[in-house]
Amino acid sequence: MRVAIIGAGAVGCYMGSLLAMAGHTVTLLARPVQCDAIQKRGLILERAGKQTQVAVQAISHASTLPSVDLVLFCVKSADTEEAGLLMAPCLQASTVVLSLQNGIDNAQRLACVLGHDVVPVAVYVAVDIVAPGHVAHHGGGRVILGPSAESAAIAELLTQAAIPATVEPDIMAILWEKLVVNCAYNALSALTQTAYAPMVATPGAQEVMAQLVAECVAVAAACGVFLPSTMLQKVQNIAQLMPSQMSSTAQDLRRGKPTEIDYLNGYVVRKGQDVSVPTPVNLAMQVAVKLAEKSHCLLRG
Ligand SMILES: NC(=O)C1=CN([C@@H]2O[C@H](COP(=O)(O)OP(=O)(O)OC[C@H]3O[C@@H](n4cnc5c(N)ncnc54)[C@H](OP(=O)(O)O)[C@@H]3O)[C@@H](O)[C@H]2O)C=CC1
Ligand SMILES: CC(C)(CO)C(=O)C(=O)O
C-alpha cells in the first residue's frame, strides 16, 4: 500500500518504520533537517536495545507528496490546520486518513480543513526522538481506530505490520480514556522531566494523579461520556507498560517547543467550565506547564 506520513516526529517515524518494514511504500513529510537525515540513512528504529535502519522516502515540500491510499497524520494538535492544508496533493477520493493525535477533536478539525473524512485513532505507544529520523521505543504500541467503512481492513493491515490495531464503535469514549491518561501523566512528567516509573513511585504523585483522573471522569460524565469504573486502574497500568517513557509534553518542554497542554488538561478545564464541574488540579497543571513553556523559551534565549 502507498502510505504518507505527515510529521516525521516520534509517532510518525515509529509508525513509518514499521509500515516500511512490512513492505509498504512509505513517504514522510518532514522538516528539512529530518528530511536530510532520512534521505541519507533512512529511519532508525531503536527497540529493546537494538537499532534497525529502514529505507523510506522523505520529502520536505508538500507539493511533491505522491497520491497515496493511506495517510497517517502525526503532527501536534496546534499544527493540525496548517499541516492539514498542505496535504491536498496526496489525497484521492478513496484515500483513508487517520489522525494519530492525542486530544479529542483533532480528527474533526482536520476533516474540516480537508473536506475529507478522517478516522480518529487513540495511540498507546511510548516513543521519542533521539536525533532527526531516529526514534526510540519505550513500550506499548497498540492503536484503536474509530469506525468507518475501511477501518477493519486498515486495522488488519496495521496489525500485520506489528502495530496491533482494533476498531471501536464508541471512539469518543476511547479518546476520552486516552485524554485521561494524558491528563494524569503528561504535565507531571513534563514539569519534573521524570519518566513514568520513578514518577509514580514518588510519594504523593499517585494521589495527585488520582485527583486529576477524578476531575476528568466527572467532566466526561457531565458531557455525556461515561468512562469505565476501572479508569484509575487503567491509568496506573500505563507506568508499568512504559516505565522509561517521558511524556510527549516532557519532550516538547525539553526542546523548548510549545506543548499540547491546552488540548489535554486545558481541554478538561474548558469543558469543566462549560458543564460547571470544578477542575482545580487540571488547571494547576495547565498553568504550571504554560509557565514552564515561557521560562524554557527564556532559558534557551
Ligand atoms: N510521543 C509519544 O509517545 C506519543 C505521542 N502521541 C501524540 O501523537 C501526536 C504526534 O506526537 P509526536 O510524534 O510525539 O510529536 P513530534 O513533535 O515528535 O512530531 C511531530 C512532527 O511534525 C512536524 N511538523 C509539524 N508541522 C509540520 C509541517 N507543516 N510540515 C512538516 N512537519 C511538520 C514537527 O516539526 P516541528 O517540531 O519542527 O514543528 C515534528 O517533527 C501528538 O498529538 C501526540 O500527543 C500519542 C501517543 C504517544
Ligand atoms: C501514551 C503516552 C502517555 C506515552 O507517553 C502519550 O500519549 C504521550 O506521551 O503523549
TrEMBL record:
GO terms for biological process: pantothenate biosynthetic process. GO terms for cellular component: cytoplasm. The keyword NADP applies. This is 2-dehydropantoate 2-reductase. It catalyses: (R)-pantoate + NADP(+) = 2-dehydropantoate + NADPH + H(+). Pathway: Cofactor biosynthesis; (R)-pantothenate biosynthesis; (R)-pantoate from 3-methyl-2-oxobutanoate: step 2/2. GO terms for molecular function: 2-dehydropantoate 2-reductase activity; NADP binding. It comes from the Bacteria. Catalyzes the NADPH-dependent reduction of ketopantoate into pantoic acid. Residues 3-148 form the Ketopantoate reductase N-terminal domain. Keywords: NADP, Oxidoreductase, Pantothenate biosynthesis. Its EC number is 1.1.1.169. The keyword NADP applies. InterPro entries: 6-PGluconate_DH-like_C_sf (IPR008927), 6PGD_dom2 (IPR013328), ApbA (IPR003710), Ketopantoate_reductase (IPR050838), KPA_reductase (IPR013752), KPR_N (IPR013332), NAD(P)-bd_dom_sf (IPR036291). Belongs to the ketopantoate reductase family. Residues 170-291 form the Ketopantoate reductase C-terminal domain.
